[in-house]
Amino acid sequence: RQHMARGLPNQKPIAGVKRVIVVASGKGGVGKSTTAVNLALGLMANDPNLSVGLLDADVFGPSVPKLMNLKGNPELTENNLMRPLVNFGVPCMSMGFLVEDTAPIVWRGLMVMSAIEKLLRQVDWGRLDYLVVDMPPGTGDVQLSITQNVPIAGAVIVSTPQDIALLDARRGAEMFRKVKVPVLGLVQNMSVFQCPKCSHQTHIFGADGARELAHTLGVEVLGDIPLHLNIRETSDAGRPVVVSSPDSPEAEAYKKIAASV
Ligand code: ADP
């Protein structure tokens, strides 16, 4: 904590990367990884000239291999750096490429800091305009360590409109503020469910919770993502909605968020 006050002397840019955007959430299961993946793809959909990478920093529950339909071990470059695996034009790196799904959680616990260090420093990204980082959920040591080690252009915080998720999201926002990472805004996920049969709209997790929290925190709501079967199904199939249904309202919602980072 002391060296934080002295202006984060350990922060070192990731070679070749212009802007690091972290996608965070207070707790798991609110749609953080789905947002991170579709945000990365949305940045490219909005501007095909951009190069965008995706780093899955959720070492305990990596989602990027499944969401981006990637598996296998990264090759090493001559400089002993790991070469990201690529799909949909996005180079990706994840703990899921380095260990088996069945690797014991205890082992991961012991290795977590050195794993994060490898994922941050030993990857050959080439040149990237954006590196989108799917953070682990919550506000623990790993999250703090990432924010202390790498200069971050901004954080996007994902929350459902539900009270409990919002409380945790507030803690996340406060952590970023403490380490001087700009909070770009909140994404309100699963805000509305529209019945595919009768089009009736239901606010399953409440209506406007994230909007109220954003107001209290003095940050923007970058967008509302509906609770939609297409998002869940395309995610599970490893064909994220922004690439598989690019003109759908769901994809547009992610592209709108991408346009604001
Ligand atoms: P987290 O990264 O916060 O743990 P995920 O992105 O893995 O959350 O999402 C959890 C589950 O919810 C996944 O099955 C995902 O497909 C689904 N999901 C996320 N956002 C939506 C949404 N807007 N509509 C439907 N399903 C969603």
From TrEMBL:
Its cofactor is [4Fe-4S] cluster. Pfam families: ParA. The keyword Cytoplasm does not apply. One of its GO terms (biological process) is mitochondrial respiratory chain complex I assembly. Belongs to the Mrp/NBP35 ATP-binding proteins family. It is found in: Mitochondrion. InterPro entries: Mrp-like_CS (IPR000808), Mrp/NBP35_ATP-bd (IPR019591), NUBPL-like (IPR044304), P-loop_NTPase (IPR027417), YlxH/NBP35 (IPR033756). This is Iron-sulfur cluster transfer protein NUBPL. One of its GO terms (cellular component) is mitochondrial matrix. One of its GO terms (molecular function) is ATP-dependent FeS chaperone activity. Iron-sulfur cluster transfer protein involved in the assembly of the mitochondrial membrane respiratory chain NADH dehydrogenase (Complex I). May deliver one or more Fe-S clusters to complex I subunits. PROSITE patterns: MRP. Its main location: mitochondrion. It comes from Clupea harengus. Keywords: 4Fe-4S, ATP-binding, Iron, Iron-sulfur, Metal-binding, Mitochondrion, Nucleotide-binding, Transit peptide.
